[in-house]
Amino acid sequence: MDDIVRQALVKWPNVPHCTGWLLLDRRGNWRMRDEAAQAQGAPGEPIRHEALLGFIHRNYEADARGQWFFQNGPQRVYVELVYTPWIVRLAVDAGGTLTLTDQAGGAFTPAAAWLDDEGGILFTEAAASAGQQPRVAALHDHDLDLFSEHAKIADDGQSGTFHWRADATLPLQTIPRADVAARFGFVASPAAQAAQAADASGDRA
């Protein structure tokens, strides 16, 4: 997190959170959603300003409930996730080695690989510490052909392997897409969760 953001949090600690205005799409694009986009359930306009994208990436974190957010100065802007909190690109470097890079430009080192029931590929890293959920990322759909060149999938689509390194072949595990958020401990729609909480509070009033 940027120092200027930490300072803003100390100076203005009680700024209300924001939900629904920022979305991460299935291809790792950040999108700004105005009121019209939110009302229509539309993804919103992609953010292309490089400095703003860098600011988002440096200040992108998750809270204790698994809701991902961008800390915009003193305000926490919760992110709507079309799928996972991270989207990765698969490539081959100059030495012929496979690489995975997340939407923030950071390296992603897979400890496990997953195949969902819609043909999507997921990777998880090793958990940073005991009791912590590992980072989970969906593979960009433009990279499925390259993935298939380094994978063997059974005819029934229920098993297989991914050859990541000479000394690291990952078994492909299967998972229903609908179970991914719960399995890996993140909230896909903080806006929907906030609305449900508000409805429940109203019912109790």
From TrEMBL:
Which superkingdom is the protein from? Bacteria
One Pfam family, short name: DUF2944
Checking InterPro entries in the record gives:
DUF2944 (IPR021332)
In Swiss-Prot or TrEMBL terms, this protein is called DUF2946 family protein
